[in-house]
Amino acid sequence: MRGYFAVGAEGLSKRMNLGNLMRSAHAFGASFFFTVDAAQSLRKAPPSDTSKSPEHLPLFSWDSVETMDLPHGCQLVGVELTEDAVDLPSFMHPLRAAYVLGPERGSLSPAMLARCDHVVKIPTRFCINVATAGAIVLYDRHRALGRYAERPLTAGGPKAERPPHTHGGPIFRSGRRPPGA
């Protein structure tokens, strides 16, 4: 897959949720993980992160929304049940994205929502566990941006393999081709 992504949470208080979310981020190939305004005890990977993700991807702990320092060009995608949020199955994921989820028994702060470039919601009847929500969003990103065969119209697997990607010729920004090209 092209691009990169990160996963984080604002205001987490439960170590098991952090560990499970970090494990999912690692499993789906996140470039880094972050927390914002997390409890002091959650500034390192808990035992529920059985993949030991901090050995494989950086963990950033920011004290507030204002101190977040995402890479240039990285779009922040909030995952929250708001009326104006885009349903996840209809959302086109940015190539460079950081997904942020809210705390247990709470929501993303107004400051965090204001900072988000996009807000998506998982179309469920009620809130689900933060670690489960994170895994669903990451699966959707993987499914949407990965190179998979199209789903068939009938039950079962694809009837044909997805053709391999073919690269086009070089693109010259000046509009002129160099000698011999």
TrEMBL record:
<dbReference type="InterPro" id="IPR001537">
    <property type="entry name" value="SpoU_MeTrfase"/>
</dbReference>
<protein>
    <submittedName>
        <fullName>tRNA/rRNA methyltransferase (SpoU)</fullName>
    </submittedName>
</protein>
<keyword id="KW-0808">Transferase</keyword>
<feature type="region of interest" description="Disordered">
    <location>
        <begin position="152"/>
        <end position="181"/>
    </location>
</feature>
<dbReference type="InterPro" id="IPR029028">
    <property type="entry name" value="Alpha/beta_knot_MTases"/>
</dbReference>
<feature type="domain" description="tRNA/rRNA methyltransferase SpoU type">
    <location>
        <begin position="7"/>
        <end position="139"/>
    </location>
</feature>
<dbReference type="InterPro" id="IPR051259">
    <property type="entry name" value="rRNA_Methyltransferase"/>
</dbReference>
<dbReference type="InterPro" id="IPR029026">
    <property type="entry name" value="tRNA_m1G_MTases_N"/>
</dbReference>
<dbReference type="GO" id="GO:0008173">
    <property type="term" value="F:RNA methyltransferase activity"/>
</dbReference>
<dbReference type="GO" id="GO:0032259">
    <property type="term" value="P:methylation"/>
</dbReference>
<dbReference type="Pfam" id="PF00588">
    <property type="entry name" value="SpoU_methylase"/>
</dbReference>
<dbReference type="GO" id="GO:0003723">
    <property type="term" value="F:RNA binding"/>
</dbReference>
<dbReference type="GO" id="GO:0006396">
    <property type="term" value="P:RNA processing"/>
</dbReference>
<keyword id="KW-0489">Methyltransferase</keyword>
